[in-house]
From TrEMBL:
Keywords (A to Z) from UniProt: Isomerase
Gene Ontology MF term list: alpha-methylacyl-CoA racemase activity
Organism expressing this protein natively: Cairina moschata
Assigned protein family: Belongs to the CoA-transferase III family.
Catalytic activity from the UniProt record: a (2S)-2-methylacyl-CoA = a (2R)-2-methylacyl-CoA; (25R)-3alpha,7alpha,12alpha-trihydroxy-5beta-cholestan-26-oyl-CoA = (25S)-3alpha,7alpha,12alpha-trihydroxy-5beta-cholestan-26-oyl-CoA; (2R,6)-dimethylheptanoyl-CoA = (2S,6)-dimethylheptanoyl-CoA
Lineage: Eukaryota, Metazoa, Chordata, Craniata, Vertebrata
Record's function text: Catalyzes the interconversion of (R)- and (S)-stereoisomers of alpha-methyl-branched-chain fatty acyl-CoA esters. Acts only on coenzyme A thioesters, not on free fatty acids, and accepts as substrates a wide range of alpha-methylacyl-CoAs, including pristanoyl-CoA, trihydroxycoprostanoyl-CoA (an intermediate in bile acid synthesis), and arylpropionic acids like the anti-inflammatory drug ibuprofen (2-(4-isobutylphenyl)propionic acid) but neither 3-methyl-branched nor linear-chain acyl-CoAs.
Protein name: Alpha-methylacyl-CoA racemase
């Protein structure tokens, strides 16, 4: 690429943004990965020296610094790093950061521009603030879990997508961006209390606000969008695959019937609740007569709102997704979703390298944040970053297979790290 064309590539939307993400389980890593995908320089602060395995499988585009925050030099180092950062993401239950002397009153006193994002299940206050929990507990407490599941079955949590990721990682990233925008006007940072319970509840506003419309008057699994309706359901095909049907509006429902070879004049009204169970059986027996490919041939290109239920492999190779390059392959041939949404001028440019090893970039990050070689040596001598840990990092690098991967120095590879 010529120098001219290289110069013409606009910086990513978040380039220059310095983010410290304290290593956590699932939500905070997604939050950090989103920011990194869109250009932020994200440093994951891992535990040292006791970490042996990276919990973060969403380390794309991040670098790793290992610190023992329980020892005064480690906590002091984080304080100093926060002095030069824009955003701190912390994923511990309420009180942990305060116990470490790293609460917001300390860090924001030293850096009033800091956005201090606290991503927890239950939030910073309330009866459960100090309790352990996981996605399913947060979805339960939000009220949403009571709505999920098929007829006559127990409530069902759809993997850990709702709390950890939608209500947690994504909304926390949104909170950070809102706070950053506000900071351009006030010059001040702020604390973000991102509770996953509230995140899911917020995301489920439609459910709350449609209560009065009669959408949800029937028991779980018997309503319009919760697998009660025959036209909003999945159906097994003759080859053991599935089709998804979402033909809600009458004109689309008509096309569904046409594709199935049915005549609406000979059927009950679309919204006749009492006929739904029978209609489901009818649709199921028809879908079971053809393969998924055959049904795709019938419905593709129509407005019947019928699509194949794809496996991950099939999703990545589906023509539509390929046409949009919706999935990317990293340098280990691992396929994952491309960052979304697509920005027209400054789209995300995700790293295609492996995720970072724990502590892999400790020294280079500390140097970038203004530590001298002597100070870093002092941290070493204080066993903050002990020889055994260094050996471990070397072993990780040699084995190469223990951890998913991507060392990407913001300064060298993307030119988007701005030293403080
Ligand atoms: C359902 C999901 C969770 C699913 C995750 C699993 C799918 C994955 C978990 C483990 C993964 C595997 C593993 O990594 C090994 C392999 C790795 C390989 O790369 C891939 C394959 C693996 C097999 C991998 C596979 C999978 O990825 C896994 C199986 C969720 O719901 S996640 C959401 C959980 N909730 C929250 O995050 C809300 C806020 N947090 C909390 O409530 C608590 O943190 C939590 C989660 C309840 C945990 O409580 P815990 O008591 O453990 O921690 P805290 O009270 O928060 O305190 C943290 C303590 O740690 C100290 N500390 C932190 N950093 C440092 C540091 N740098 N140095 C020193 N010390 C540190 C801190 O001071 C606290 O100490 P104290 O307890 O003494 O105060």
């Amino acid at each position: 690429m010529s120098r001219r064309s290289a110069a013409a590539i606009p910086a990513m939307a978040l380039s220059g943004l310095r983010v410290l993400e304290l290593a956590g389980l699932a939500p905070a890593p997604l939050c950090g990965m989103i920011l990194a995908d869109f250009g932020a320089c994200v440093v994951r602060v891992d535990r040292a020296p006791r970490s042996t395995v990276a919990v973060d499988v969403q380390g794309r585009g991040k670098r790793s610094l290992a610190l023992d925050l329980k020892r005064p030099p480690g906590a002091a180092a984080l304080r100093r790093l926060c002095g030069g950062a824009d955003v701190l993401i912390e994923p511990f239950r309420h009180g942990v950061m305060e116990k470490l002397g790293l609460g917001p009153e300390v860090l924001m006193h030293e850096n009033p521009r800091l956005i201090y994002a606290r991503l927890t299940g239950f939030g910073q206050t309330g009866k459960y603030a100090k309790s352990a929990g996981h996605d399913i507990n947060y979805v339960a407490l939000s009220g949403v879990l009571s709505k999920l599941g098929r007829k006559s079955e127990n409530p069902y949590a759809p993997v850990n997508l709702l709390a950890d990721f939608a209500g947690g990682g994504v909304l926390c990233a949104m909170g950070i961006l809102i706070a950053l925008y506000e900071r351009t006007k006030s010059g001040k940072g702020q604390i973000i209390d991102a509770s996953m319970v509230e995140g899911i509840a917020y995301i489920s506003s439609f459910l709350w606000k449609t209560q009065s419309l009669g959408f949800w008057n029937r028991p779980r699994g018997e309503n319009l969008l919760d697998s009660g309706a025959p036209f909003y359901e999945t159906y097994r095909t003759s080859d053991g695959k599935f089709m998804a049907v979402g033909a809600i509006e009458p004109q689309f429902y008509e096309q569904l019937l046409k594709g199935l070879g049915l005549d609406s004049d000979e059927l009950p009204e679309q919204l006749s609740f009492s006929d739904w169970p029978e209609m489901k059986k009818k649709f199921a027996s028809i879908f079971a007569k053809k393969t998924q490919t055959e049904w795709c041939r019938i419905f593709d290109g129509t407005d019947a709102c019928v699509t194949p239920v794809l496996s991950f492999d099939d999703a990545a190779s589906h023509q539509h997704n390929k046409q949009r390059s919706s999935f990317i392959k990293n340098d280990r041939e691992e396929i994952s979703p491309r960052p979304a949404p697509l920005l027209s001028r400054t789209p995300a440019v995700p790293s295609l390298k492996r995720d970072p090893f724990i502590g892999e970039h400790t020294e280079e990050i500390l140097l970038e944040y203004g530590f001298t070689k002597n100070e870093i040596a002092q941290l070493y001598s204080d066993k903050e970053f002990s020889p055994p840990a260094r050996r471990l990092f070397a072993e990780q690098r040699d084995e190469g297979s223990l951890f998913p991967v991507s060392p990407l120095s913001c300064s060298s590879k993307r030119g988007r790290f701005v030293p403080g």
